[in-house]
Amino acid sequence: MGESTQDQDQKPTEPTQPHPDPSAATTTANAPPQNHPSQTAKIPLRPRKIRKLSPDAGDRKSPHTDAAAENPKSTPPKVAKNKIVPYQPKPAPKIAARSLSCDGEIEIALRHLRAADPLLAPLIDIHLPPAFDSFHPPFLALTKSILYQQLAYKAGTSIYTRFVSLCGGEDCVLPDTVLALTPQQLRQIGVSGRKASYLHDLARKYQNGILSDSSIVDMDDKSLFTMLTMVNGIGSWSVHMFMIFSLHRPDVLPVNDLGVRKGVQMLYRLEELPRPSQMEQLCEKWRPYRSVASWYMWRLVEAKGAPSSAGAVVGATSLQLQLPEQQHHQQQQQQPQFLDPINGILNLGACAWGQ
C-alpha cells in the first residue's frame, strides 16, 4: 500500500484534458469565423471617411466654410495673409453723353466743363451757350464741305448755290443726281476738276453701299472717322467739323484745327502752340464734351492778340478771325479744307455760332 502511494508520487503528472462537450462544439461551429491578425492589418478602419459620409458630419461646417458662404468674395485668413493683392482704384463714373441737340444736353455739358476745368468757367459766363439745332442729311452736308474747300465763305456760298440749282434743289442733292453731273457741267459753275472727282467718289461710295445716311448716323465716332476719311478729298479736319456741326457729336476734339490749338495755348498760358499729338492729353479733362469746349476755344481766339485772360474776350464781337500771314499759310497746309476756318465752320453749322 505504501509502494502504491510512492509510485503515484513519482509518476509525472500529465495535463488534464477536458472532456469534449458536444454542446460546446455545436456553438463553436455556428459562431462566425474570427479574422486573422494579418487580415485585420490589411483592412484598416477609416473613421474620418465614414464621418464625412454620415448625415451628421455633412451638416457640420468649419468656420472658414461659413465665412466663405456668407461672403463669397472674402478670402480665408490664411490665404489672404500670404497673398499680395495690388491696389486697384475704383474707375470714375462715366457720363453717357447724348447728341448736343438733345434737350438739356448743353446745360449738362456746361456744368461738367465748369467742374472739370475751372479755367473754362469765365468763358462760359461771358458767352451765350452754343445752340446745335440745325441738321442736314449727311450726304448733303459732306457735299457742301467738299465744295467749300479752300474757299472763302462768300465764294463758297456762291458756288454751292449754283450747285444746288444745278441739282434741282437741296432735296435733290442725292448720289444718283451728283453722279449724273459731268465734270464739264461742274466746271461751268466754278467747281474744279479735282473737286468734281471728290464729289463723284463720295456719290459712288453711297451708291455701292459703303456709306449711307443711316449708317453714318449710327456709327460710333471711331468707325465714322475711319469710313469718311476713305473718301477722296475728305480729311480729318473735315470729318471733325462734320461730326460737330452736322451730327452734333458731343466729344469731338479737332486736334488739327489751328483755332482750337491756339485757344488751348492761350487758356493754359503755354509758351508754344501745342502740337496735335499733345492736344489729347491737354484736353482729356473735357471729356465727354470736348466739342463744346472746342467751341469756346474758337470764341477765345476771336479777338486778335487778346491776352489769355478770358475777360479780354468780352469786347470781341466779330466772328471773322484775322490770322497773321505766316499763320494763315500754316493753316492752309494743315487743314486745306477751308481757307478761312472760322467762316468754314459757319458754313457747316451757322446756328451753332448763334448767327
TrEMBL record:
One GO biological process term is:
DNA alkylation repair
Give GO terms: molecular function aspect only.
alkylated DNA binding; DNA-3-methyladenine glycosylase activity; DNA-7-methylguanine glycosylase activity
State any GO CC term.
nucleus
InterPro entries registered for this protein in UniProt: Alkylbase_DNA_Glycosylase/TA, DNA_glycosylase, HhH-GPD_domain
Outline the extent of the HhH-GPD domain.
147-302
Low complexity: bias regions: 22-33
| Positions with biased composition (Basic and acidic residues) | 53-64
Q: Does the keyword Cell wall biogenesis/degradation apply?
A: no
Give the UniProt keywords, A-Z: DNA damage, DNA repair
The protein's name: DNA-3-methyladenine glycosylase
Per the UniProt record, the source organism is Actinidia chinensis var. chinensis (Chinese soft-hair kiwi)
